[in-house]
Amino acid sequence: MELGLSGKAALVTGSSRGIGRGIALALADEGCNVVVTGRDAGALEEVAAAVRRKGAKAAVVALDLCEADAAETLIETARSKFGGLDVLVNNAGATKRGDFFALGDADWQDGFALKFFAHVRLARAAWPLLKERRGSLITIGGTSGRKPHASFAIGSSVNAACAAFSKALADMGKQDGVQVNCIHPSLVDTDRQGRRIEAEMQRTGLPEAVIRQQFCTETGITRFGTPEDVAGLTCFIVSKNGSWLHGATIDLDGGEIPVL
């Protein structure tokens, strides 16, 4: 299927590893030039090299999205390197798990600072460029925003906020010609999930395969997702074939969410 993305410019936050890395490489496969960004400069250079091997252009910006001028720096990079911006993927951010009473104000502030407020600023900064090219914005949230649970109170709240923010932007996007959607992945097989699995193995003494199956059973999913699963859906949404999809929050979840 020809997606019509060749030559377009994309910015993917949190693209040094995991879902963000998968999305950046998938967009490059479709011919997009990509601004990759995150905190790990070395990992970003590796991603950029992989993007270039696919025949696309890459720009690397290593920074903390919570910095006051981070959004402007990233948008200026997209403008100077690629002449504008067609696709923004707000993906960066992680939140602490744990007992509600053990998590303090700083944990909540950190959770919202990167995965929500930093992306609010980036959406604001990117909007004129996206409007100019009738581009697309996708936010990567998580199924906990649809099925909150006590051990992930911060993440559940942040992901619900991401979906609501995306819906609000989509309303504005109808007038400005900017497509806006949100994806809620379930458990995805990344380094972050690997650390959770390792911690549970150490706590219980059970083998990895057993822990993985327990996680799937407890979550109600058929299998762990992969970064490529999320990347494939992202590429479709921002392509000419997905252009009628607007204002949606899609549960990419292996069957986790049991309600309509």
Q: What would the average pLDDT be, to the nearest integer? A: 97
End-to-end separation in angstroms reads 29 Å
Q: Which stretches are poorly predicted, pLDDT < 50 over at least 5 residues?
A: none
- Sheet-strand content, in percent, reads 5-15%
Number of separate strands:
7
Number of helices: 8
What is the strand arrangement across the widest sheet? 3-2-1-4-5-6-7
Judged by helices, strands and strand pairing, the structural class is: alpha/beta
Question: How many whole angstroms does the radius of gyration measure?
Answer: 18 Å
The ordered string of helix (H) and strand (E) elements is EHEHEHEHEHEHHHE
Helix content: 40-55%
* Largest sheet data: 7 strands, parallel
- So what's the overall shape? globular
How do the helices and strands line up, and which of them pair or pack?
Blueprint: E1 9-13, H1 18-29, E2 33-38, H2 41-53, E3 58-62, H3 70-82, E4 87-90, H4 105-133, E5 136-140, H5 153-176, E6 179-185, H6 191-204, H7 208-219, H8 227-238, E7 249-252
Parallel strand pairs: 1-2, 1-4, 2-3, 4-5, 5-6, 6-7
Helix pairs in contact: 1-2, 1-8, 3-4, 4-5
